[in-house]
């Protein structure tokens, strides 16, 4: 099942929300863990610095896309001389299989981690078949 959830090829996004990018910022591919349970696929994506109102999740055809607009850090009162962390936006897409119930997908965010719960469709869940003797 987890193999059916494929990561789409990512490159630096030229657009966000179908329009031209208004901010000259890097676009990162968020680090993501994917887990499978009996009833669902769980996707955890790290997007530090992204507020809940900065997250956009879309499902078009079979492609689930997550976007996050990171906030810009205020740097008043000092001059930065070295940086290893960069402000930026996040974007990642996944191709969903028919085994996912698209109408019941849920999303939540806590401590900079986006959690998507992708319930399995009833037809995709394993079931026991009873043997009848004749």
Kindly estimate the percentage of residues that lie in beta strands according to DSSP. Answer: 35-45%
* Shape, per Cα inertia axes: elongated
User: Could you spell the SSE succession in H and E letters?
Assistant: EEEEEEEEEEE
Number of strands: 11
From the alpha-carbon coordinates, what is the Rg to the nearest angstrom?
A: 19 Å
- CATH architecture title: Sandwich
Structural class: mainly beta
Number of domains: 1
- Helix proportion range: under 10%
Count of helix runs: 0
- Stretches where pLDDT is under 50 for at least 5 consecutive residues are 1-21
Task: Return the CATH topology.
Answer: Immunoglobulin-like
Q: What's the overall average pLDDT, rounded?
A: 81
CATH class: Mainly Beta
Beginning-to-end CA distance, first to last residue: 35 Å
Largest sheet: 5 strands, mixed
Properties at a glance:
134 residues, mainly beta, Immunoglobulin-like, 4-stranded antiparallel sheet, 11 strands, disordered N terminus
Structure description:
The protein is mainly β and 134 residues long. The protein is built from no helices and 11 strands. The strands form 3 sheets. Strands 1, 4, 7, 8 and 9 form a 5-stranded mixed sheet that branches. A 4-stranded antiparallel sheet has the order 5-6-11-10, with no helix packed on it. The protein has a single domain, classed as Immunoglobulin-like (Sandwich). The radius of gyration is 19 Å and the shape is elongated.
